[in-house]
Protein: LysR substrate-binding domain-containing protein
Organism: Mesorhizobium qingshengii
Amino acid sequence: MDRLACDRMLVAVIERRSLSAAAQKLGVSSGQASKLVSRLEEELGVQLLHRTTRSVSPTEAGRAYFERIKSLLEEMDELDSTIRSASGAPRGRLVMSVPITFGTQVLAPLLAEFARAHPLIELDVSFSDRVVNLVEEGFDLALRIGSLRDSTLIARKLCPIRLVTTAAPSYLHAFGAPDRPEDVTGHACILDSNFADGASWRFARGLTVPIRGRLRFSNAEACAAAAAIGLGLVQGPSFVAGERIRTGQLIPVLAGCEADPMALWAVYTTGRHLAAKVRVMVDFLVSHFQDSPPWDQGW
């Protein structure tokens, strides 16, 4: 039995929750994938997967084995990559999850720059606002905005993310600018369900103010676009508002009353050694964001 092939198949099956998807990833048939897992179960003398006609899921023993063997396989792959590369350059497939708006507006050009600088790294980037499970879904790295809930991950703060309140010149001309945070209650507000609780906005010193409005989007770019044509006030991340502020489409209001900024985090799994492909990506992002985020400059 090729124990290494069996171990890799088990990891792929648990990450993708599918024998057929795991088989496709590793280039074998579904029948061969099932045989490899069965051989591993026979070797260990324990059931590793619950199988039904529609899904597979790890048993308690399978989950425990997966968590240990995955890190060992990663260390082995990293060692292989280092030995095979005469220059020691990072290599391998880097699977990332990034928020949609931040990823498309800010990160995409930087990912292209990273890919050009690291030709031996294969980038596989998922643009999603869903909080992925790095271990179960096979991600090496994720970027997250706001508070972190999973204490089992390592987190590296990349930069602050400001929440700014803005409006179009046409709206401010027609309805005036709020003088105090409490004044937004009387204005038409465009609600971003990703950065507000749907009923209030946050300001300095922990103040929350009730808001109302007829427009609610789960995307900051859609909110900013609506605000730019004069449909109301909007509160959202400065990486979305920044370019429109620089061009005069939006004007900041209540600038002295901003809430404490959120944070942009890089999160990755624990382990004795951080894979070189992950390390160089995190270092690359830190170098671009940490000192002064580019979207906050020039306004």
Notes: The CA atoms of residues 159 and 291 lie 7 Å apart. The chain has a mean pLDDT of 88.
